[in-house]
Amino acid sequence: VKRLLALKNVNSTLSPLKSVGYRQVCKYLEGFFSYDEMVYRALIATRQLAKRQMTWLTRWKDITWLSQDIQSSLSLVTKKIENTK
Length: 85
Known about the structure:
- The model has no long low-confidence stretch (mean pLDDT 89).
- The chain has a single domain, classed as Crystal structure of tRNA isopentenylpyrophosphate transferase (bh2366) domain (Helix Hairpins), CATH 1.10.287.890.
- It contains four helices and no strands.
- The chain is elongated.
């Protein structure tokens, strides 16, 4: 992030640098937060984003949720693909 901010025409007001994680690091580098505060705020922002994403995804009626188990997820995806043929 330091290297990005050092580039010409790049600053913390650009949209990509306002995303979760970058925003908190930029504020830290600008002296607004301590390191610990930056980490804390980044974690909170990440949790809030995950909650918004889950809220949005639960509105999809035909969504297929995959487990963290690769084998069972692979099996489910394979069955879904075979059923679309």
